[in-house]
Amino acid sequence: MPLRDHFSPPLAEHRSWEELHGAWPGSIAFRLNSILPPDYYCGPRVHLGSAIEIDVAAFENEEALGAIADGGGGGTAVAWAPARPTLLLDTDAPTPPEYEARVYDVRHGRRLVAAVEIVSPGNKDRPESREAFVSKCHALLQQDVCVAIVDLVTERQSNLYAELAARMGAAPPAIAKSGIYAVSCRGITARGRWRVEEWEHELAIGSALPTLPLWLTDSFSVPLELEASYEDTCRGLRIA
């Protein structure tokens, strides 16, 4: 089924985009949980009036991950390999600010490794909203968290991914002028250099959504099947 325009007539006249944004994170989480290794899980996280996101959290257990990557024990091995990345940025390793306070859940040793950010109109409507979204994604990348951004908002043309690239000092990405898009980014450090790799796709109303790599470690990823989870959500909401 094709991508619908949830922000313009005729669909917007009888279906709210908030219904899709509220339900889609759960569909993404259900699909990811069916393929994630046993020491990883995905949970939907929705903040009304602010960002909508999915977090993939991890328990540190490299032996279990290795077993899954080799196709053995405890879960369903994923026979899938992402395309080669396009280099977004290659620079000296960043020095994040040290004026911060962080709280960790040490009871279970939980560590965030990936986040899927579904852009809402409120993320794009004002300079301060765009700044907050870009700052959040930038901070996650600096913390070695894989960040996927999915923007279906057709009523506002700001490209938050392009603003994120500018924040990092990178050249404008190929989809800098795209109104709607999906991209997966990860930051890795090697030999004192910080490298941001990206897998980007320009979206179009009437076309299928892509599958993006969601990286759990530097060498292991799972497919983020946007089309399948989107269609599951539309069927569940009876959106034709």
Secondary structure: elements and pairs:
Elements: H1 17-33, E1 40-46, E2 52-59, H2 62-69, E3 86-92, E4 110-118, H3 121-124, H4 127-142, E5 146-151, H5 160-167, E6 181-190, E7 193-202, E8 211-215, E9 221-225, H6 226-236
Parallel strand pairs: 4-5
Antiparallel strand pairs: 1-2, 2-4, 3-7, 5-6, 6-7, 8-9
Task: Briefly characterize the structure.
With 240 residues, this protein is an alpha+beta fold. Helix content is 27%, strand content 28%.
Detailed description of the structure:
Strand 6 (about 180-190) and strand 7 (about 195-200) form a beta hairpin. Helix content is about 25%, strand content about 30%. The model is unreliable at about 95-110 (pLDDT under 50). Helix 1 (about 15-35) packs across helix 6 (about 225-235) and helix 4 (about 125-140) crosses helix 5. The chain is an alpha+beta fold and about 240 residues long. It has one domain (about 10-95, about 105-235). It is built from six helices and nine strands. The chain has a seven-stranded mixed β-sheet with strand order 1-2-4-5-6-7-3, with helices on both faces. A two-stranded antiparallel ribbon has the order 8-9. It has helices at about 15-35, 60-70, 120-125, 125-140, 160-165, 225-235, and strands at about 40-45, 50-60, 85-90, 110-120, 145-150, 180-190, 195-200, 210-215, 220-225.
List its salient traits:
alpha+beta; 6 helices; 240 residues; seven-stranded mixed β-sheet; two-stranded antiparallel ribbon
Total DSSP helices: 6
Q: What percent of residues are in strands? A: 25-35%
Instruction: For the largest sheet, list the strands in their spatial order.
Output: 1-2-4-5-6-7-3
Distance between the termini: 9 Å
Secondary structure: helix percent: 25-40%
How many strands, which pairing sense, and closed or not: the largest β-sheet? 7 strands, mixed
Cα radius of gyration in angstroms = 18 Å
Stretches where pLDDT is under 50 for at least 5 consecutive residues are 95-108
User: Secondary-structure element sequence?
Assistant: HEEHEEHHEHEEEEH
**How many E strands?**
9
Report mean pLDDT, rounded to a whole number: 83
| Secondary-structure class | alpha+beta
Q: How many distinct folded domains?
A: 1
Overall body shape:
globular
